[in-house]
Amino acid sequence: MPNLVVDFDTLLTMSGKDLGTTDYREITQQQINMFADATDDQQWIHTDPERAKDGPFGAPIAHGFLTLSLIIPFWGELFDVDGVTTKVNYGLDKVRFTSPVKVGSKVRMNGTIAEVTEVKGGAQIKVNATIEIEGQERPAVVAEFLARFYK
Predict the structure, then answer these.
(1) CA 133 to chain centre
(2) Closest CA relative to residue 80, chosen from 119, 111, 121
(3) How is residue 130 annotated by DSSP?
(4) pLDDT digits over 19-51, tens only?
(5) How far apart are CA 28 and CA 19, in angstroms?
(6) Is the pLDDT of residue 83 over 90?
(7) What is the DSSP string of 38-102?
(8) Rounded CA gap, 24 and 34, in Å?
(9) Can you state the percent helix, strand and coil of the chain, rounding each to 5?
């Protein structure tokens, strides 16, 4: 269940709203391997734990796009809009992978609605999303996530 559920009219007034922070999720080697299989990205820094021990990060790391894809389940923890017919993940702006996520790390997301714009039949929001790594100062991902809600 999302932390915050609003109706469409309230959504239009939410520019600048801090949506809070999700719970942590652990990144497992199994997740990394499944993502590697799905994307055909079998680079050893992700999928070979023995070799990765001697690599630049001292352990396997999650693919940047795996970490980025967690925006979707995290988003579901933070926010929803009631009374709309369609909800669309519209895209991303300004994505940066600022720190590697080692296997076994825990990550969470915080988000702020930076902007709300009316579009034909609905509204688009831009969310400043930051995926943090437990115990680290630098986040794993910083992105502007775009979502649309249609009446």
Answers:
(1) 12
(2) 111
(3) E
(4) 999 999 999 999 999 999 999 999 999 999 999
(5) 27
(6) yes
(7) HHT---HHHH-HHHHHTSTTSS-B--HHHHHHTHHHHHHHHEEEES-SEEEEEEEEEEEE-S--B
(8) 20
(9) 25, 40, 30
